[in-house]
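ok trying this again, last paste got cut off
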Amino acid sequence: MATSSPNVPNAAQPHPPGASPAVRRLAALAMAPIEAFLKIQASSGVVLLGGAVVALGWANSPWSGLYTQLWHTPLGLRLGSFAFERDLHFWIDDGLMTVFFFVVGLEIRREIFQGELSEVRRAALPLVAAVGGMLAPALLYLAFNAGRASASGWGVPMATDIAFAVGVLALLGNRVAPALRILLLALAVIDDVGAIAVIAIFYSSGLAPLGFGIAGVGVLAILALQKLGARNASVYLVPGIVVWAGAYVAGIHPTLAGVVVGLMTPVRAWFGKEGFLDQASQSVEQSRAAADHGAHALLPHLDQLATARREAVSPVERLLHLLHGWVAFGVMPLFALANAGVELGSASFEGDGTRVFLGIVVGLAIGKPLGIIGLSWLLQRAGLVALPTGVRWPQVGLVGMVAGIGFTMALFIAQLAFPPGPLLETAKLAILLGSALAALIAFASARFLLGPQPHAGGAQTAEAAEASTAD
């Protein structure tokens, strides 16, 4: 009978050396509900909402001064005579949010390569819907604010928060067809592209040529590393920081550096599935032969196995897998905590305040669905776009309602559109209420637009099946 080495995990020794089985069992029991929650598609939206609720409550509590003081805590870097110091709010909005925009860039890169944006036919409807969903809110906002200083906020209601929007659809259960989720995802990605363009073109000022030169050096360094075949993401960190610094010096919002680097990330796997399996088999066999020569003889084969593991998928897919959880459950909730703390007493409805409030709320809750379904319907009637199989116009309307949840990107643009003061606080309050109103309208309309929730495991009646496929 074969015996197992005491250092090899097996049924008789399920725990690592030195670990306490009792402590591991307690930890597993404690983590089980957390892990189950994180696997729910809507959970990132719940955490994001939690950050906003905490911020709003904290900013209007007796400890509101502590809330303000926290985000103005100075943090920085000092090397000899060089010093770069900013407050905590800056490092969240301009630093951590760069990671958010990097992930957005990765998602756009993937969709262009092999997703919903890879073919004109597949991208036509979400492209048209996204354009309508950006134009209508902006025009409605300008209808309230044209000719006033507050008109600078026209970009605020254009944005869609993909985490919240997808989360709301997930909460509606299996009434939502997969094609409808894909439509929303593609629309949200294109919406992000539009928001990025708006930020770069309309909310950047005082452009400095030196900054573009610095950013160009970073971009060239990334291209050179790619030509050298560097595939480890960590070696691109320094050039990425150079691109960020260049954007900051140039007067472009530095978070856009994340989009640039994300769009430059390789989208093809080196080994792929078959290559990984072949290399893994070879490394395992070679490791068996080298095992008798000591642990040092195993290391080269383990390095080969690590490379094969890393290159089984493309850098885009690997980085999305690595960063998605950190962004969804870390960066975005922290951004909400730092920016959603509206002091209700500071929001002003005098002068332009009421117009800003109405422009954003109406733009998000009404402009988004109106623009998405309106332009899509017009071009469908003209024969230029077609609905995906199984998707009906009422469902497209639901996507438009859900897309009215602006939140993260809307708050971000508001920070650029308005200086600190009453108008910014009013805009933030309008974003929170407008996004909440859009979500409530979507929930209230879902039963009428999607039909009743199908019974689990049960077949639909003939009438229900016919209704679900009718155009």
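PB: full thing came through this time. Confidence is low (pLDDT under 50) at residues 1-6, 456-471.
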